[in-house]
User: Fold these one by one.
Assistant:
Number 1:
Amino acid sequence: MLKRLPRVATALLLPWLTLGVSQSLKVLLNDPSNNWVSTTTISFPRSQAFFDATLRWDKYAQPTFSAAISPGVEVDVIKSVKLATSHNIPFLATGGRHGYTTTLATLTNGLAIDLKTVTSQCPGQVGSTLGAGVGRDEGRYGLAIDALLSVRLVTADARLIEVSATSHPDLFWAIRGAGANFGIITYATYRLHRITKSNRKVTNVDMIFPANMSSLYFDTIIASYNGSLPPLLAAETIISYDVTSNAPQLLANWVYYGPESEARKVLAPILGLNPPVVNISVIPWNQLLDTVFFGSDSSNCVGNRTASLYGVNMRVMTASTYQHVVEKMGQFYADNVNGRGSILTLEMFPNKATLAIPDSSTAYPWRETVAAVLIIMIDPDESALQLGLELRNDLAATSGFPGLAVYVSYSHGDETLEQRYGSAKLPKLVALKKKWDPKNMFGFSNPLPTSYP
């Protein structure tokens, strides 16, 4: 069993109407009758411990807290939930605090339940899983939820239960795609895949394309791969500002799960474009995240930034749409000096193994996705926020879905329920929400209602 605590958002929406919120919380949390273990830490604003327990990856539309508890053991997670719910204190449990959605800002002066003491990843493994867990391995192994075997979960009424295909299977279905709505996961068990000599090495290819090659780059992707990558190939492309040319550029990372000789054959159409900057390396599989994008990807974990995010799922890919996006970003960079840190990421992950899992087996509604777009507007002013919405609308118009479809972990927070959770999944999800969380305690992270429509 893997011991991990998630980035799962939880909340108690009943208002806490006592006077002196901070002082009252201090008295409640410091009451000796709580019998916290010695490794559990209680902290309050203006202390380093509190800062460390509440620092988020993104501070745009963030929640606010009057106290934080960092449980050292599972039983103190249960105690924290019981204390908060019995006193009508709104709370939010987090792991890596890498999650983003503007709905989190509806939590004010609450209790932070900091679970990062047992998860150091960015973002947290379990928190990522509960949205679906997209990534480069989708072509081989499917989504992270497809590898999830069981969890231990603290419910809205502060019970600890085992959730799996054979224990509370309805809840197991729901947490795989909408997990932030149903509880706090303290343990998770995954199906693992054996690393052998033949799949121990990965070929990583990083490239930079200037703006005048962007149209050819996108045309080549569509023509060569039919808008869907083979199982062993994955790619991410970032549209960013290039200081040298004072124009957009494409940072392209392509990963092939195999030897360099095979990678060069599969990537021949892209390498044949002769990008001015190319770096090819063969590395152990567990060094991939430290290598991609010329070794710069780890900087994405640096917290305390201010960014407004917008996500879009794509079922089909249209080169002209992406070129239009490059041109709009270029104009934005030219007009907004302070917005030049903004980027757009196009994640093209193969979905062969993802599609092999029946759609009805989990709450996740977007298995047909061939690419996901994440628009990140840094230090946004009104023009940046407007561009984010425009780009999202432009991409959704040619996505191949009937309307906007969004991976819930990439949700901005203004989408409809159908756009996040899919209209076909909502009736069952809402019924389970009413069953397991009728008072909407876990209701700050893209919350489900207890009735629908």
Number 2:
Amino acid sequence: GIVRNADRSARRKGARIMMQKAMNGDLSEDDDETEDLLATKIYSQLGLGEEIEDDDDDDDEGVDQGLLGDGEGDTATELGKSPRKRRPTKKKEKYEPPPVEGYESYFEQHRRGTKTSNSTLANLPPLDLGEYHRLLREYAMPHEDERQMLLDIHRENFGQWAFELSQNFNVMVYGYGSKRKLLMEFAKKIWSPKNFVVVVNGHVPTLTTRDILSTIFTTILGADHGRKLGSNPNDMLDNLLSLLNGEDEDDDIRDTFPHDARITLIIHSLDGEALRGERHQAVLARLASHPRISVVASIDHIRAPLLWDSAKASQFNFLWHDATTFVPYSVGEASVEDSIKMGGSGRAGGTKGVKYVLASLPQNAKDLYRILVSHQLQAMEEDGGGGNEVAGEQYGVEYKVLYQMGIEEFICSNDMAFRTLLKEFHDHQMVTSRRDLQGTEILWAPFRKEELESILEDIM
């Protein structure tokens, strides 16, 4: 009790002295520091140090109460302990954004976080070609009776279509569903010894106008005609039109193709990927305008008529017929294998990918690729090879030879620029290179002959 009273007496005396000096205005800066230290020491003994730091704006009345009060703090000081008195902590209020007004409030209330799935196409097991066809055979198509009824309705129009063809019009059928079966039945109906029928599958990606013209030549002259048809599709078309006009007086031709005979082209998917180009449509339009050529075609894209300007539309001279069948589309085995890469290791993108890449490259890159493809096709023609096999290094071009050709045509000015162009081709798998036994680098385009011809037509 004695120690406690002594401490309390000293504290009271110190507080009284400070209050007198403050009232008399005798406080100096040194006194202020001394008194601050004394007050801090006293408050620390009372366990109120944290309260002073947190609340520096307490008035004198609060200070007096802390100095003069007794109770548990005094008992703690006597025992040599300094318990800390904590203020009750305030709960942090959750921040709420201001309310959104207008139409944005609806989207704010219904906003959800995006979830990304880890499932990718690469995780699926590879689909074998045989398994693909097995699944197609086992799948039962719904509404078979209704689709058959639609086909029966369209078959009743075969007479009308044949009459329109006889009046030098061409027939265009459109509508949802595959029209292949319908057009093949019409081809069987109109075929005769004086009405030859040529079927063109426009949905095949590797189809070219050269293939179409060559087939027509074979139909007129026979498979072993041995004639030179021309170096490009325009020359071939000019020779074909001359032949149809009767300018060739060969007796063998009169036997196989009489002067009053006609040819009917059945073109499936005239708006197909392989025939959408400007040059392809121009050649087919000129061909369709000949009086001895009739065209029965189908389209599947809703914007297919945009392929033709007024001149081409006048040459085609189509009469349009709705032939909606709701029959599922089916393409040839090679086309399916190429499009979904089943059971093979074909080039990514194929010729379609090459055309997209060339469209984004500068003109000098296109010219360099044109030189390579032209040289490779010439080597194939001289060797009589190609066919359906992918071209190999035997038809390639030496690095120095191709570089010299590029210099002569002002495609590149130095070896660095030449290698920069080649790097674009290598990155997109458009060119393959290999060194022979002598160490000479050989470059070639790894595509089939018909694919190279299609690429060259697109570049030209």
Number 3:
Amino acid sequence: MSLLFMMFPYGAEAKKVMKWPPDRESIQLDLVGLLTVIGMMNQHCRRIRHDDPLPNYYRLNGMLPSRFLPAPQAFLLPQRLTRLPPRPNITTIGVLSGNRAPTLNYFPELLLDLDSLPRFALREVAITRKPERKDDNISPRLIGPTNILTCLGTAMVIAMLVLAVVEADGMAIIAVCLMSITSTFTGLGAHWTVDLQRRLEKRVVPPGDVLIKTETGGFILVRCDESVARELFFGQDLCSYTFSENSFRLFAGCGTFTLMAAVICLANCSWMLQASIGGCYLLLNALFWIAAVLPRKWLWDLEMYSIKEKGLWTANSYTVALFNLVRRTGTTKWAEGTGVAPQTTAWQQWLKEANENRLDEKWDAGGRLTELVQVHSAQTLVPEPAERELKGSDGSSASSSDRRE
């Protein structure tokens, strides 16, 4: 109630009225410089979400070198990324090659959309390179969210420069130029292209089919040749930087000073320019946040790969899913030391029988595994808890009190 009395006074308190700025010139915008550095969470959110590092600036880096960029200090890091971050907890296995990786590389995750795979399902796809683009490298989309934001940031710089000239605001001209130069320094220092590992030798090798096991017990069987398997699944997708590490540090240092100088100049601009520049950064922060939550596949040109769906088989248990996999691959080599199946006598026997019965659609995979587990469990003597004693070198047993001593 006291708050209401303050806002709507009456009686003796009527003399205390709510105070408002008498005109727009009285509104203080000295902190508008903070808007140029707010938004760092959006930029780091993209890096944590396995997105591409934004300093690449894509194909427009040469044409549009200067622009408004929210939180440019987010890219002034002491160390650059060496490779695009892979997805953990995904097992990647060469069906016949024996290759194995505990993670899934960045670009196969975008191509295959693992999150849409049901539990215990087996999805089979074929990935090939299009003949007309067999030598093309993966690159960002020309018309993509980040390029659109880049063009918008450049247009804002031009508009603010024109407004500063019309208003005869020298400090605003310097502030806009310094902010745009800061984005140029950060972009040049962190500019990179994708460096995929290519297969150079033309030796005769087995098919490069790849098996992917997801966290939910699902499988994706990728039919491909060894060249596609090498560059997408088992080679590292590295970041090839245009400038050296020392040059990056030099650009980062210059960007730091231009950013600080731009914030100081911005605090001394006229009210009109401060309000206009503040509005630009408010809009850019909102749009960058939206771009951060868009599907990452929209950012990259992956049209050089052709993906053909070959089938989807669902199952109600992990055992049935493995049997479906044995039927589709015609082998159990992918289960040797990969952790896909437990390394017990019952499971090894089951895998052998599953391979022998892979053409029999009526073979009961789950029932047979239950029988094998019961048989081998009965043959395994498990000592009682009271009998589990450590044996000494002379064959004598030691009690728990002796062991503690």
